[in-house]
Write a sequence for this structure.
């Protein structure tokens, strides 16, 4: 086997670049109310109001995605930045996910950012019509081992299938969870509303291509079915400057009515009744 | 460093029948499909390694091979008959090729030897004490009166250099990757033929 020089993971890096930094006082549960298409353009971390903090997370996540930094060093750099601000977590939350300095929190921040970029990149690279023709479906299965598997995915799969379209997706009772690429089940299955990995925090499940012959044998499509490519619009977004992208994102978030930006550019939750 | 294997489908004697008849390997659209088959085989291999190779120290798993799987890119076609897959993970080339890692001048490599140290940088701990030996190597110790020695536990070894053995098994064999490419290409040509025959 021969080897060549590394190629940048452009589609994944683009997915990182189009995301504008979004300082916020909102919790992760509140952020989850923002539509996926908007969140896909935002880099946020629950309760992080410091733009520089988000920039450090962005920087190290990009380097991990490029393949030039390991996750432990990335995590260390985030911790070093947070420590340099004089931050100290309250005793009651120390070491947990709400503690900006904890290993649990920094690990999650880096891993999620990297995995979302890689998921978007692999998804985008697979939108070639010939690849979609040859591998028109995806199988949802375990891709990373877990000591204590949740065991809830088959049930979630069938619920997502029932809530979207049953055609083009298998029932999990068949022993396999397979659906056509572009099927709405993928976004419905995802905690983040996105049709690619990761599908939840810390999930060991992911997707792999299914050959056309196998998908046809399962009755998911016929010989002539065409899978339409899904363009997430990252390339188009990159035509705009970061300032324009950021302004668009802020407008889109405020238009949802979920949050409002203050004079410092920090997003705050707006109660459904109307009070900030 | 990332690892970028190139697969050359350059031996026509190995081509499956339809791929040979259609001269498919020369067609970029077929080769893109073959490349996808190769990338899928790589991802499957890394999933298998993730389930088989937990860290030896027994600490919290970092899922190294799960990370590697997610860093596999869709291949690029390489003229005239190859595909190139970039695996953008910082540690995979070192595992494959092995080799010497040298500490920067004035510093030491920190080699985790304690389950709690696995997947962590030594600087993430603020209570480790260095102990140096006359030969320049050393250890990082965490005080623990309850430990077998009554003093503490060793978390890291401090070394000037380490030599890692090459491990080609972190990638599938050439033959496995080639088969994956051929199967994907042959399947695709079969689909195209089936459509044209109606």
């Amino acid at each position: 086997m021969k080897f060549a020089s590394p190629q940048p993971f452009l589609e994944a890096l683009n997915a990182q670049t189009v995301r504008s930094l979004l300082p916020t006082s909102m919790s992760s549960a509140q952020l989850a109310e923002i539509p996926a298409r908007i969140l896909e353009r935002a880099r946020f971390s629950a309760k992080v109001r410091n733009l520089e903090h988000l920039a450090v997370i962005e920087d190290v996540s990009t380097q991990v995605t490029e393949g030039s930094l390991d996750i432990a060093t990335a995590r260390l750099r985030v911790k070093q930045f947070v420590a340099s601000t004089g931050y100290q977590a309250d005793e009651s939350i120390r070491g947990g996910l709400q503690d900006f300095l904890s290993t649990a929190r920094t690990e999650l921040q880096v891993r999620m950012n990297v995995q979302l970029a890689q998921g978007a990149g692999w998804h985008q690279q697979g939108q070639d019509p010939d690849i979609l023709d040859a591998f028109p479906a995806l199988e949802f299965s375990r891709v990373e081992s877990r000591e204590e598997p949740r065991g809830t995915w088959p049930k979630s799969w069938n619920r997502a299938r029932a809530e979207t379209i049953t055609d083009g997706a298998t029932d999990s009772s068949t022993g396999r969870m397979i659906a056509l690429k572009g099927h709405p089940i993928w976004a419905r299955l995802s905690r983040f509303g996105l049709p690619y990995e990761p599908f939840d925090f810390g999930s060991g499940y992911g997707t792999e291509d299914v050959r056309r012959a196998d998908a046809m044998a399962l009755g998911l499509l016929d010989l002539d079915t065409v899978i339409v490519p899904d363009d997430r619009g990252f390339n188009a977004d990159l035509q705009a400057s970061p300032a324009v992208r950021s302004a668009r994102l802020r407008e889109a978030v405020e238009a949802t009515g979920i949050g409002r930006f203050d004079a410092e550019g920090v997003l705050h939750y707006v109660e459904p009744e109307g009070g900030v | 460093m990332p690892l970028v294997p190139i697969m050359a489908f350059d031996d026509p004697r190995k081509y499956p029948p339809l791929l040979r008849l259609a001269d498919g390997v020369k067609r970029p659209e077929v080769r893109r499909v073959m490349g996808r088959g190769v990338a899928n085989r790589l991802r499957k291999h890394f999933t298998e390694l993730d389930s088989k190779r937990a860290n030896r120290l027994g600490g919290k798993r970092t899922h190294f091979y799960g990370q590697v799987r997610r860093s596999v890119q869709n291949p690029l076609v390489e003229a005239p008959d190859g595909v190139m897959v970039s695996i953008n993970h910082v540690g995979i080339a070192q595992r494959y090729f092995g080799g010497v890692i040298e500490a920067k001048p004035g510093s030491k490599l920190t080699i985790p030897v304690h389950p709690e140290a696995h997947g962590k940088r030594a600087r993430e701990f603020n209570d480790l004490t260095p102990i140096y030996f006359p030969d320049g190597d050393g250890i990082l110790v965490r005080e623990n009166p309850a430990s077998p020695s009554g003093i503490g536990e060793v978390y890291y070894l401090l070394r000037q250099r380490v030599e890692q053995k090459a491990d080609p098994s972190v990638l599938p064999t050439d033959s496995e990757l080639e088969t994956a490419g051929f199967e994907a290409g042959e399947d695709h040509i079969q689909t195209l033929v089936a459509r044209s025959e109606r």
